[in-house]
Amino acid sequence: MPEGDTIHKVARALAPHLEGKPLAFFTGRRWGFRPQLEGVHVERIRAEGKHLWIDFAGPLSLRTHLGMGGTWHRYAFGERWRRHAYGASAWLRTMICDLVCFDAAEVELGTRLQLAASLGGRVGPDLMQEDPDYDRILERVRAFQGEHTTVGEVLLDQRIAAGIGNVFKCELLFHHALSPYAPPTLLGPKRWQSLYREAASMLRANLPRGRRVTVPPDARHGLVRLWVYGRERRPCLRCRTTLERIYCGAHNRPTYFCPRCQHRGAPCASSIS
Ligand SMILES: [Zn+2]
């Protein structure tokens, strides 16, 4: 699933091709009607957490959420699409190119008011925004943490704060020496706030970069860019212990971790099967 910084990068990449441009054609596979937006200008493209909004002149917007397998492509006229047209969730044509969103988990067209209402409480403060509302994030941690069994699941819950995906979840747990099994009740408000502040700075630091980096240059070994994510069976950059990967949480997402450095909240060894 894309992280929040990915969607901001998508918004930046699409903006020069869409903002201020009139649409020559617009359709989506999942609507039972053909929206009449030809000639309407695209006003603005914005990212909020993992949601991408395309605001048209007037009241309408298109909201997409890429989920696990969605992606945006840009094509010159006549260029062969790299994915099957059946997977096109939304297709926007300007006078110079086609922009196609494939296989989005969510795609919704409506007035901005309708779309905001349908999202309701599903999206917490966006960590990519300047000065996120940490008090509100802490309120939401209190409200929703009871639904989760681990700190990692809380971090992925977009209702609490929008933007953290599985890569940054793993890196944050490592930075805070938290076991992937650490229960949410282990942390007090100060530690939660520090986790979310660090998440915001990681996400923002990675916005201008092509590839995600969490390891500072002076601690880097060769081309390693991330402390733990994707590095199972390789040595921890801090203690040389072999990193591990487990699958846990409601969505069974992989969590990469160092069993030695990430000791806080670890269950006793006998309870791990
Ligand atoms: Zn370690």
How is this structure best described in words?
The protein is of the alpha+beta class. The protein has 2 domains: 4-122, N-terminal domain of MutM-like DNA repair proteins (Alpha-Beta Barrel), CATH 3.20.190; 134-271, Orthogonal Bundle (Helicase, Ruva Protein, domain 3), CATH 1.10.8.50. It contains 6 helices and 10 strands. It has a 4-stranded antiparallel β-sheet with strand order 1-6-7-5, with helices on one face. A 4-stranded antiparallel β-sheet has the order 2-3-4-8. It is globular and about 60 Å long. Mean pLDDT is 89; it is low at 269-273. It binds zinc ion. The site of zinc ion has 7 residues, from loops.
Shape: globular
The CATH class label of the largest domain is: Mainly Alpha
Question: Which sheet architecture does the biggest sheet show?
Answer: 4 strands, antiparallel
The helicity comes to 10-25%
| Topology order in helix (H) and strand (E) letters | HEEEEEEEEHHHHHEE
Heteromolecules bound: zinc ion
CATH topology of the largest domain: Helicase, Ruva Protein, domain 3
Which structural class is indicated by helix and strand composition?
alpha+beta
Distance between the termini: 27 Å
Radius of gyration, in Å, reads 20 Å
The number of domains is 2
What is the correct CATH architecture of the largest domain?
Orthogonal Bundle
Arithmetic mean pLDDT: 89
* Number of discrete helical segments: 6
Instruction: Extract low-pLDDT stretches.
Output: 269-273
